[in-house]
Amino acid sequence: MTDLVSVIVPIYKVEKYLGKCVDSIINQTYKNLEIILVDDGSPDNSGKICDEYAKKDNRIKVIHKENGGLSSARNAGLDVATGEFIAFVDSDDRIHLDFVEKLYRAIKEENADIASCYVESFIENKNKIERRVYVNKKIVVEGKGEFKYYYHLGKKSSNVVWNKLYKRHIFETLRFINGRVYEDRAIYLHLLAQSEKMVFIPEVLYTYTVRSGSTMRSDFDEKKFLSVKANFEERVEFIKTNFSEFLSNEIISSFKNYFSVYIVCNSKEMKKKLKQDFKAKWKVYKSSISKNRPFIQKLKFFIQRMKVMYF
Predict the structure, then answer these.
(1) Measured on CA atoms in the order 233, 234, 237, 239, is the torsion positive or negative?
(2) How far apart are CA 156 and CA 201, in angstroms?
(3) CA 81 to CA 8: how far, in whole Å?
(4) How far apart are alpha carbons 216 and 233 in whole angstroms?
(5) How many Å apart are CA 115 and CA 202, to the nearest integer?
(6) Element (H or E) spanning 35, and its range?
(7) What confidence tens digit (pLDDT) does each residue in 68-91 have?
(8) What domains lie within the chain, and their CATH numbers?
(9) Burial 93-130 (b: 16+ CB within 10 A, else e)
(10) Tell me, what DSSP letter sits at residue 207?
(11) What is the pLDDT, as a whole number, of residue 142?
(12) Pick from 1, 193, 256, 258: most CB atoms within 10 A?
């Protein structure tokens, strides 16, 4: 195991969590790491904590930059990364000590471009960990099979970028959209399109922290609404243009995302805007969805819930 793996950590106002996150990376069983800590103009002590870690471990590179958001921070890390493989870890999360090693071995064994694993959630206000395991076997998919895998088995490999390891070439021409909220959803289909083979290993190797102050659960504003709207339209257009056989699957996936966002939205005004935009899109795409009978049956309960919520 001689390949260099670049681990990119975007950092903003996480001094409470940062130590456990970085410790989980520097203590990996896979040692040939380039650890890139991107201080995105954090107003707390996060930047100082990064500098202290860099003094202790020469594998750590620290970038201090003006605040530009999560996408900007990840892009800054990608711009300086030199590893043959890339991983992302959010600064309030932790990876299991063999996260890199097991995903790296999976990629090598299958000659894959992306390796993915299960995620467990640490519910901060309840101080407990929740995990769901759906299958207990390794899954390897190639070409368009990756999209079929994503749409039909997405519970094991969602839109997030941080429970995966990537070959460097995946990001040669790709970057996150600066200023976009829910940026993982915006880039994910493009990542799949850049990959020829993906492997999923049925092990929990990443711990995601569910906290009240996170981006997903903070105040829902106009910027977030526009991001949800743009993600829907861009993803549908991308699939329609490049992988049209999955169009109805993507439409349903995007409607499902609207539902999920609506649930966590804490603004009556924004809920109203989401509802109006959802109704407009439903009129446009309802006929396309109805053609995908097997998929509709699989998500029948979800669609019923969605109709109740919005209508």
Answers:
(1) negative
(2) 9
(3) 8
(4) 20
(5) 11
(6) strand 33-40
(7) 999 999 999 999 999 999 999 999
(8) 5-210 (3.90.550.10), 222-310 (no CATH)
(9) bbbbeebbbbbbbbbeebebbbbbbbbbbbebeeeeee
(10) E
(11) 93
(12) 258
Alpha-carbon gap, residue 89 to 87, rounded angstroms: 7
Residue with tokens 């106009």: 222
Closest CA relative to residue 266, chosen from 230, 299, 304, 219: 219
Specify which residues 114 forms β-bridges with: 166, 198
pTM listed for this prediction: 0.90
Phi first, then psi: what are they for 217, rounded to 5°? -115, 5
Nearest to 161 by CA among 227, 116, 213: 116
Q: What is the DSSP letter of 92?
A: T
Q: Between residues 123 and 106, which one has the greater pLDDT?
A: 106
pLDDT digits (tens, 9 = 90+) for 13-69: 999 999 999 999 999 999 999 999 999 999 999 999 999 999 999 999 999 999 999
Amino acid identity of residue 102, one-letter, is K
Token reading at 183: 């940026």
